[in-house]
Design brief:
Distance between the termini: 63 Å
Oligomer: single chain
Structural class: alpha+beta
Number of strands: 3
Amino acid sequence: MLGLLALAGLSLDGGLALASKVRAGGQAESAARAGAQALDLTAYRATGEVRLDPARARDLAQRYLAAVGATGAVQVAGDTVTVQVTTTYRTQLLSLIGIDDIHAHGSGAAHPQRGVTAVEP
């Protein structure tokens, strides 16, 4: 009976933990895209160079994470915003055999692009 319960727990909780990992990855990617919208407009207007305002990029990515109820780390290096999201899935059946949590991680990175229908140099 214990083996059957463990197998059912692996199926149910494993599937839900995988969905949690996919959701964390999507949240990280979306937060990175939100941060990549923080262009340094002064530099762009003066030189035509597309670059990020690092403080604003970090802020936009963190705001996105807060809006979707996620927590994560945001880093801005050069023209790339990188976001790492960690979430904890509380098991339903596996908790009966002592596995209470499954941790899932997701990451995403984005950088600004010039162009509307295609990437311009």
